[in-house]
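DM from R.C. (forwarded with permission)

"hey, sorry to bug you on a friday — could you get me a structure for this? deadline for the figure draft is monday and I only need the backbone to look sensible"
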Amino acid sequence: MILSPETLLGKIRADFESLVGRVRQSAEEHRRVDCLEREVLAELLALGFQLLQVFIATQGTGDVGPTVDKGGRRWKRLENLHSVRYVSIFGELEIERTVYGTRETQKIEVAPLDAHLGLPAGDFSYVLEDWLQRMCIHDAYRESVRGLADLLGLSVSVRSAEAMNRTLAEHAEAFRSQPVPPDPSAEGQLLVVTADGKGVVMRREDQPQQVASPPAGKQGTKRMAYVGAVYSIDRFVRTADDVLDELQRKRRAVDRPVPQRKHVWAEMTHLIEGEACDGRTTLFGRMSEEAAARNPHQRKPVVCVMDGERALWEVKELWVPHAVGVLDLFHVTERLWTAAHVFHPRESREARRFVDHRLRMLLEGQVGYVIGGLRQMVTKRRLSAADRKTLAAVIGYYENNRRHMKYDEYLAAGYPIGSGVAEGACRHLVKDRMERTGMRWRRTSAQAMLHLRAIYLNGDWNAFIESHILREQEELYSQAA
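My reply, with the result:
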């Protein structure tokens, strides 16, 4: 029960004067500052709770007369006041208000005070929801609610935090679908799309055999999250020597341009009316929409950098067929090292020379010569069956991706040739939160978390929260009396 505003204000003034007195006394006693800091925070939270009570008490009960019209019907005022739970960052309140409906035992149809105060659909305040979910997208739910309890003294269950996360993510789709306004002053000379896959460990009931989704990881315990990014970047013209020098020194070029307006997203395969909707298709659909919005007149060259997963390239051809395809050089180099170790010991100079020589040829556009040379080594050298199989896999990889290995053209045009942005997104968006020790996910919970993490990493969290509040308020109260 909320006390009268006058009673509350009198208590607040007395408590504040008491706090000021304790601060003065602490100064005289030379107390350690952090001890006072904790004490003051606790007192200020208590004062905040009382001030919130004052604010709500001044708003009345929402009584607007004997009847109220809504949805084409007239509802009557019910005899009793009905309370609603509201958990704020200062503590939990029970707000009593006048409600309207047919009779006491039936559904409440109208609560004018709810609309006047802008109460959320659930029990938790928008501020609390915002703060807690900022913690949850970085750390495990249990640790997040424990941290909230340590900071604010609030007890929120893990189940409530998970439900809050899923509910909040329901608004991510609408927010993500808002048009991305072009901003030429903030864009680079090239537009780049890139994608990769990262497995997420699932609970037994949500493992891949239940949905037609490609398995990843041992024994089908993972479901693939497809991660993509759209960004712009300035051209960076280089030679084969420049690239080799950078790789040998294992240092990034000082003058390398940086990605601009990088937006990441992740999609998992899910069911719609019993049919599997492939995560790759959903992801590329979103990326193509953003690329079109950021390049409305198709004046910028579009580049797609990925590894050799054939299914990704097939989807790319459907959604961004005009994009220049570039096979990520890191994966190309990995295969060269695999081939080198068939003939030379690991970490040897001979292996390094083997790789450097052929990598230079690839960078200069001589893919056919590299493939031909490897084939001759298979036929002319005395190799074990395992070594022949290893080299055949390398040759097959280059053959399958040959059309995306025109590195001499890419370097001359200043195109990126590495998919580090996609791999970084897999790490920051998926691995850092989803692969902690012992974590197992349900598909819906995993997708909700990925959507919210993407929004946060894109720097859109504050705008998203405001959009979520406005959308929910519109849904709740657009027809309020």
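R.C.: lifesaver. Confidence is low (pLDDT under 50) at residues 209-220.
me: no worries. The longest helix spans residues 5-29.
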